[in-house]
Amino acid sequence: MTKGMLGRKVGMTQLYVEGTGEAVCVTVIQAGPCNVLQLRSQERDGYEAVQLGFLDKKRPQDGATRSRGSQAARSERGHVADIKSKRSISRRAAGMELPVKANCEPKKFVREIRGMMEGVEVGQQLKADILDGVAAVDVTGISKGRGYAGVMKRHNFSGQRATHGVKKCHRYAGSTGQSAFPSRTVKGRRMAGRYGGKQITTRNLKLVRIDLENNLLMVNGAVPGPNGGLIVIRETNMV
Predict the structure, then answer these.
(1) Are 142 and 55 in contact (CB under 8 A)?
(2) Which has more confidence, 115 or 15?
(3) Across-strand partners of 218?
(4) Quick check: 53 and 37 in contact, CB under 8 A?
(5) What's the CA gap between 178 and 184, in Å, rounded?
(6) How far is CA 38 from CA 35, 81, 155, in A?
């Protein structure tokens, strides 16, 4: 069984280890509460997983025919609750068994955690205590987007010399290909481009402390993404 949660990065601080007094840099994570929306099974879906939802999503105002912006669409509401659609009514009339609904609010952040099946039911609410006893975790998030960046910022190039004839091109990349053969830029050449904004997984972060009352996790080290960014926390499989 793989233990996991959805959460949000709060920020970084430091804690003091009891006994030694050593200061440890930690990232504070708000872990849950998460609602179990669906259970994937080997017989029906070909794999085992638990679908979790984190943070409620706004519903459209009364009388509104369509959802706008950050509001939950009808399909998202039907994913978590029985809204008596034409499709569900016709399926019930045909004798089909419909999947169990979580009967909760639509969620902003929905992800699946593979292999997490034992003792979990649809509609159950998971809190930080599910990770109690876990030594280390893997944290997945979207890294900070830095826009279009040059080679010195994106790839840590040293740049060109500031003397001996180098004029107003100190931060340039320099030559990127050959003239005669193959007369093109080789695929994979490190150049300027979009930097950040990608999914990053930081592995084997030690779980220093759990605040069960406030659903907070303190992990040793940095976590990808900005403060307030949504992340996935899984029990690590690294020994």
Answers:
(1) no
(2) 15
(3) 28, 209
(4) yes
(5) 6
(6) 9, 11, 41
Q: What are phi and psi of 166, to 5 degrees?
A: -80, 115
Per-residue model confidence (pLDDT) at position 67: 65
Count of CB atoms within 10 A of residue 49's CB?
Answer: 19
CA-CA distance, 182 to 105, in Å (whole number)? 58
Residue 153, C-beta contacts closer than 8 angstroms, at least 6 positions apart? 146, 195
Alpha helices in 54-196 (DSSP H): 74-80, 86-93, 151-155
Give, in order, the Cα–Cα distances in Å from 12 to each of 22, 139, 228.
16, 15, 12
Domain 34-126 matching CATH 3.30.40.230: the answer reads: no
Rounded Cα gap, residues 239 and 15, in angstroms: 25
- Flag whether pLDDT at 229 surpasses 80: yes
The Cα 133–Cα 125 span in angstroms is 19
Look up residue 119 and give its two tokens: 């003792």
User: Which ranges in the chain belong to alpha helices (H)?
Assistant: 42-45, 74-80, 86-93, 151-155
Instruction: Give domain limits for the chain.
Output: 1-32+136-145+204-239, 34-126, 148-195
Take residue 161 and report the two structure tokens written for it: 């010399």
pTM: 0.82
Decide if 151 contacts 192 (C-beta within 8 A).
yes
Superfamily of domain 1-32+136-145+204-239: Translation factors (2.40.30.10)
d(CA 226, CA 8): 10
